[in-house]
């Protein structure tokens, strides 16, 4: 796992696609989010949780390295 999100290809920047972990329910997602946010923050990674409540914020997902979802 690398902590860098962007790389240069010619004059364009490319972004890494976030990894997605699908949890069985919101409780499992919240637990995994708390654990991984603390663990992966040390590596400079951004962890986001999406539980299906309301519209998904695509900008938030785009800025994430790891998405925990239900």
| Strand order, largest beta sheet | 3-5-4
User: Helicity range of the residues?
Assistant: 25-40%
Sheet-strand content, in percent, reads 25-35%
In one word, what is the shape? globular
Describe the protein's architecture and organization:
- The protein has two helices and five strands; from the N terminus they run E-E-E-H-E-H-E.
- 30% of the residues lie in helices and 29% in strands.
- The relative contact order is 0.27.
- The strands form two sheets. The protein has a three-stranded parallel beta sheet with strand order 3-5-4, with helices on one face. A two-stranded antiparallel ribbon has the order 1-2.
- The chain is α/β, with parallel strands linked by helices.
- The mean pLDDT is 81.
- Strand 4, helix 2 and strand 5 (66-69) form a beta-alpha-beta unit.
- The protein starts with 5 loop residues before the first strand and ends with a strand.
């Amino acid at each position: 796992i690398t902590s860098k999100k962007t790389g240069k290809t010619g004059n364009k920047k490319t972004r890494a696609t976030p990894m997605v972990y699908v949890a069985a329910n919101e409780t499992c997602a919240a637990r995994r989010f708390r654990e991984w946010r603390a663990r992966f923050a040390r590596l400079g990674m951004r962890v986001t949780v999406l539980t299906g409540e309301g519209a998904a914020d695509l900008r938030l997902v785009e800025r994430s390295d790891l998405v925990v979802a239900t």
